[in-house]
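Support request, please re-run this one:
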Amino acid sequence: MVSIFPLITIFAPLLGTLLISLFWRDLGDRVARLGIAALWCSALTSLATLAVVLSGDTIQLALIGTPSGTMTYTVMVDRLAAVMMALISLVSLIIHVYSERYMVGDAGYVRFFALLGGLTFVLLSLVSSGNLFWLFVCWHLVTWLLATLLVCNPDSRAARDAGQKTFWVQSLGDAAFAVALLVLYGSYGTWDMTDLFARLQAAPALLTVWPGLQWECDVPLVVTLLLVLSVMTKSAQFPFHFWLIGTIEAPTPVSALMHAGIVNAGGFLVNRLAPLFGLAPTTLHLMFVIGGITALIGATAMLTQTSVKRRLVYSTMGQMGYMVMECGLGAFALGRS
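Re-run finished. Output below.
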């Protein structure tokens, strides 16, 4: 019975998006109310999910495929996922309510609420995924949806440039994530996180760089280095932080969702894959250095800005640097509990 709570949390925003897409001609400006109603359902059930998980065990459901299948779409809600789901749904609800009047008169009003609900669904699916393949699919969908939302005003050349820059920078990280998935599957034969972590602990594998050569690499090291590149692009780490600066052209609700949620995806990924990163201390040291440089640049640049939006951008950059530094120190208690 309790397993229905996370499903409503995840799929309510998707249902709202589908209804908006189908009936927007009849609804007109009332599409905002439909989106808000969907987020109320999502937010309330996310709190119920959090209460259930805190008082009991992890909720795990196989929705598509067999429970042990490689491509199975698995919902895995532990304490980390439950906390993230509550934060995402509550922040998105606030943004929906704020946007109802803020976006009035905008030519892309209906499109904005459809995309906002869709992005919320993808973020909730990302943090609750128990399979790395589906997590990657959601990871790339976030890139595409964020770039699309940034171009809410297609007549603005600055907005178009910001959307394109965001898409290509984050796509670079997505490509690294895809290569990491292939290496993991080639070495361990699974993308299911539970099985993967068990096999990692049993025997960390070695990767042969080229057949016939006596040169092997540590798989956890190679994979985590690739994933760090993906974290750097998604969480605006130096030297990939420049895409974040261009997002000041986005509407305020988009900026709020991005600064409050999307850029935190890198930290979530590291915490979710803590058993893997724990086997690669070199990667953790590198993350600490990258995070420190990013935090220093962000905090220093923020002090020189006169625009409130630009101060927010550099403040977010600095905070993301601190987050990556924390991950580099191996602070994975939340992710493992």
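The radius of gyration is 20 Å. The chain has a mean pLDDT of 86.
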